[in-house]
Design a protein that fits this description.
The complex is a heterodimer of chains A (80) and B (353). Chain A is an alpha+beta fold. Chain A has two helices and four strands. The chains are: A alpha+beta (80), B mainly alpha (353).
Chain lengths: 80, 353
Amino acid sequence: MSSDVKPTETLDVRGEVCPYPDVKTQKKVKKMKSGEILEVILDYPLSAERIPRSVEKMGHEILKTEKTGTGEWRILIKIK
Amino acid sequence: MTDTSLMLAGLVVGIIFGFVLQRGRFCMNSAFRDIVLMKEYTLLKAVAMAIVVQMIGFHLMATMGYIQLYPKTFYWGAMIFGGFIFGIGMVLAAGCASGTTYRVGEGMVGSFVALLGFMIGGLVTKGGALKDLTLYLQPTEGALKAITTENAGPYVGNANLTLANVFGLDPWILVVIIAGVVLAVLVWKRGGEETKAEGTLYEKIFKTGWNWWITGIIVGIIGIIAFYTFQNYALGISGGWFGFLNALITGELPRLGSGMLNWFTFLVIGVVIGAAVAAVIAGEFKFRAPDAKRLLQQFVGGVLMGIGAVVGTACNIGHILSGVPQLALSSILGGAFIILGCWVAAYIMFMRG
């Protein structure tokens, strides 16, 4: 499933603390072009729930949120 | 209760509290910061729900004679300064007192470092190099001294100010108005932010994060149980950690006779255990650390929180979660400045440019 979409860019924020995963994702999203795909890899539980909500509010599309391992998540965002 | 049973009760309440904090991601730093930073209100709604549940619960129990309310002393200068410093500190530390504590149980090394700073800052301000700051802002005489009342009103076990007794009102009038307004707003603004409800009940409880209203109601109920078991106060985090480090350094057990530090110290140890259990079951426990710069930032934040919690007489839990529901004027002022400090720090750190 995860191989069907190829991310344009990857943001690895593992280890980062509240709210840096969210802040860095939002900054990255704003810089990217329409139609591009951002892959975010993170290990902070609250951000794994909060990033999809806030990014959707910004009008972008969440293609996928998946738990990839113990305490690790991967979020795929399609820029509007 | 005997000392042993009180310690055990603290531990059990702490374990349940820690489990719920982890499942609900209940952190006031995120709750207040995210309003300005991301226009996110989910955790704020959980906090508001917990406060309302306790406001009703505390006053019901007090009316039935099971407890007496113990609003904290109103040192206005201490509340303003301590609250503001605490608020700045929790943004740097990436978690409030309870948020930092439960994240230690998730394996977050940065929160552990923040906790060390928090305990050190607290003890330094309580009886160490900064104790004069505490004495200056909490004096027995002079302009900054505590303001108390001669008519504490019904249900209040000390001479401290509440929103009710300062105006000579029956507390229930305020409880009904405040709870009514907050609940109406929560119901009106309820939608759209719940965790997607799929899977079995087991998965909803143990695997996915909880909806804000479930977290809020359960945190509120735990606070009510805590007040009933401990009698002197409801939930608190800072006193427990300061007592813990103090016991380690001095070799003296926390005051056994009063039961005071025993209860809180075992409560915070319980929170770490409960959060760890919740994180392991959910597959979210992982030792992880940010880079050196961030660790140092979290340590400094922890120290500021420790200073603020001692000067301001409580952390976000003691003031906002436990004090505001008692309508304590000290906690309302202290809590307001915790939020203000949080916003100022969040603006400077994340929102400029």
